[in-house]
C-alpha cells in the first residue's frame, strides 16, 4: 500500500469509526492542540448517561513490596521454531534480567504442548546454575486454566486460529496474575541489556488519582508502554483498531492521541479483569470470553460493518487484545492513571530477512542507548531459524553485560 493509500485509509477510518460507534471523532479535533487528559474528561461527560454503572471502579493499590509490581505472561506453542525462539529468549533473560525483581514468569500452552514447553524451560535453567532461580519463578498454565471455552472438551472454538486464541488469553489469564501489572511477551522477544522489573515503568509522585503506589504512597508506577499516535499507524493496525471499536461499541476519539501499539505491552491486571466484567454486563452475555471468541469470526459482525471495513482495508476485520484494552481504558478515563508513553521496546527490532542480513546486533541492538528499551526481536515472518539468530546474538551477550 502506498503512502497515499494509507492516508486515505486513515482518513476513512476517522469517519468509519464514528459511523460504527455513533461517535464523530471530527468533533474533537486534534489532540496536538488539546491536552489528552482534558479530552478524556470531555469524553467522561457522557459516561454516566451511556454507561451505568461506571465503566471502571478504581481503588488505589499500595504495593507492600516492589516484588508485587510485575509478572511476565507468555503464550507458547510447541513448534520447532517457537521452542527454539523460547530458548534464545530464556538465555538472554538469565543473562540480562534481574530475576529477583520479577514475581513470576507465567507460560500458557495448550494441554498437549505443556510438557514440551516445561522441558525447554527446565533445560535452559539448568544451564545457568550460577544464577539463583526462585523455585516459584516459573508457572505453567494451560489454555483451559484461563478460559473454559478453550478446554479440549469444548468443540465450539477448535477451528479458531492460534492467534485468535492467544489474543483472548492475554486478557483472560489476568485472573491468575498476582501482581499489579503483567507484560505480554512472545517467544521471539529477547532481552538486550541489564534490566529489572522497574525498567518497564515510570516513577512519579503518588497522587490521589494514581492507580499503583508504593507502600508509603510517595511514588506511583505507570507502565511505560510503546504508545504512539493513532494516525501514524499503518492500514492493518487501523483495521484492528476499527474492528475492536466496532466490537465494543465504545466512543473514543480517533485523532492524534497516543494508543497502544505492538507487543510487548504491559497491562494493568485490574483493567484487564474489569474489561471482562464490562463486556459481560454491557452485552448481557453469560461468558465475556465466548463473546470475544465469537467476534473473532468475521461472519459474526453485522453485514454493513463488515462490508465497509472490507472496502477500506481489503481484509477481514478482527480485534486484538491491545486495542480492546486501550479502547476500554481510554473510554473509562483511566489510561493515564496506569500508562505513560515510554521507550519503544523494540525500536531495534528486525522485521525482514533483508534487515536481518544487514543486521549487526552488537552495535545495532545490544549497545544502543537505554532509551530504546530493554528488549528486541527478530520477527518470525523473516523465516530465519532460531539457531541462526542465536549465532548472531550470542557474541553480544558478553560484551553487553
Widest beta sheet: strand line-up: 4-3-2-5-12
Outline, from the CA principal axes? globular
CA-atom Rg in angstroms: 21 Å
Helix-strand makeup class: alpha/beta
| SSE series | HHHEEHEHEHHEEEEEEHEEHHHHHEHHEH
Give the strand tally. Answer: 14
**What is the helix fraction of residues, given as a range?**
40-55%
Content of β-strand: 5-15%
Mean residue pLDDT: 80
- How many domains? 2
**Can you tell me the residue ranges where pLDDT is under 50 for at least 5 consecutive residues?**
1-49
Q: Helix count, per DSSP?
A: 16
Q: How far apart lie the N and C ends?
A: 41 Å
Major sheet attributes:
5 strands, mixed
Overview of this protein structure:
There is one protein chain. With 401 residues, the protein is an alpha/beta fold. The protein folds into 2 domains: 176 residues, no CATH class; 190 residues, no CATH class. Helices cover 41% and strands 14% of the residues. It is built from 16 helices and 14 strands. The strands form 5 sheets. The protein has a 5-stranded mixed β-sheet, sandwiched between helices. β3, α5 and β4 form a beta-alpha-beta unit. α1 runs parallel beside α8, α1 runs antiparallel to α11 and α4 runs parallel beside α16. The N terminus is likely disordered.
Task: Tell me briefly what this model is.
The chain has helices at 3-21, 36-44, 47-50, 80-96, 114-126, 143-146, 162-172, 235-248, 269-283, 288-295, 303-313, 321-331, 335-338, 353-357, 361-366, 386-400, and strands at residues 61-62, 70-75, 105-109, 138-142, 181-185, 189-191, 201-205, 212-213, 219-225, 227-229, 258-260, 265-268, 339-341, 375-377. It is of the alpha/beta class and 401 residues long. Helix 4 (80-96) links the parallel strand 2 and strand 3 (105-109).
Amino acid at each position: 500500500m502506498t503512502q497515499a493509500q494509507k492516508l486515505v485509509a486513515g482518513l476513512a477510518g476517522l469517519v468509519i469509526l464514528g459511523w460504527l460507534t455513533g461517535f464523530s471523532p471530527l468533533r474533537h479535533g486534534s489532540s496536538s492542540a488539546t491536552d489528552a487528559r482534558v479530552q478524556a474528561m470531555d469524553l467522561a461527560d457522557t459516561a454516566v448517561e451511556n454507561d451505568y454503572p461506571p465503566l471502571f471502579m478504581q481503588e488505589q493499590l499500595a504495593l507492600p513490596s516492589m516484588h508485587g509490581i510485575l509478572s511476565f505472561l507468555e503464550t507458547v506453542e510447541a513448534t520447532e521454531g517457537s521452542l527454539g525462539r523460547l530458548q534464545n529468549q530464556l538465555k538472554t533473560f538469565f543473562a540480562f534480567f534481574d530475576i529477583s525483581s520479577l514475581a513470576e514468569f507465567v507460560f500458557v500452552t495448550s494441554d498437549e504442548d505443556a510438557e514440551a514447553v516445561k522441558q525447554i524451560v527446565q533445560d535452559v535453567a539448568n544451564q545457568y546454575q550460577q544464577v539463583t532461580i526462585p523455585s516459584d519463578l516459573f508457572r505453567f498454565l494451560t489454555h483451559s486454566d484461563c478460559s473454559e471455552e478453550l478446554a479440549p472438551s469444548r468443540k465450539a472454538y477448535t477451528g479458531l486460529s492460534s492467534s485468535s486464541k492467544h489474543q483472548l488469553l492475554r486478557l483472560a489469564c489476568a485472573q491468575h496474575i498476582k501482581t499489579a501489572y503483567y507484560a505480554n511477551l512472545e517467544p521471539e522477544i529477547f532481552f538486550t541489556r541489564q534490566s529489572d522489573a522497574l525498567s518497564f515503568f515510570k516513577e512519579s509522585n503518588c497522587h490521589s488519582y494514581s492507580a499503583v503506589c508504593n507502600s508509603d504512597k510517595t511514588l506511583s508506577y505507570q507502565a511505560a508502554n510503546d504508545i504512539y499516535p493513532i494516525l501514524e499507524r499503518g492500514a492493518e493496525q487501523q483495521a484492528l483498531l476499527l474492528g475492536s471499536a466496532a466490537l465494543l461499541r465504545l466512543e473514543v476519539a480517533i485523532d492524534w492521541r497516543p494508543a497502544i501499539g505492538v507487543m510487548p505491552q504491559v497491562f494493568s491486571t485490574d483493567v484487564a479483569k474489569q474489561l471482562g466484567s464490562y463486556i459481560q454486563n454491557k452485552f448481557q452475555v453469560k461468558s465475556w470470553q465466548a463473546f470475544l471468541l465469537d467476534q473473532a469470526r468475521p461472519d459474526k459482525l453485522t453485514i454493513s460493518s463488515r462490508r465497509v471495513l472490507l472496502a477500506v482495508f481489503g481484509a477481514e476485520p478482527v480485534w486484538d487484545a491491545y486495542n480492546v484494552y486501550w479502547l476500554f481504558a481510554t473510554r473509562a478515563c483511566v489510561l493515564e492513571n496506569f500508562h505513560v508513553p515510554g521507550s519503544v521496546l523494540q525500536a531495534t527490532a528486525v522485521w525482514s530477512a533483508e534487515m536481518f542480513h544487514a543486521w549487526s546486533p552488537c552495535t545495532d541492538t545490544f549497545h544502543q542507548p537505554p532509551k530504546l528499551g530493554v528488549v528486541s526481536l527478530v520477527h518470525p515472518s523473516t523465516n530465519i531459524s532460531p539457531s541462526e539468530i542465536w549465532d548472531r546474538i550470542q557474541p553480544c551477550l558478553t560484551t553487553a553485560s
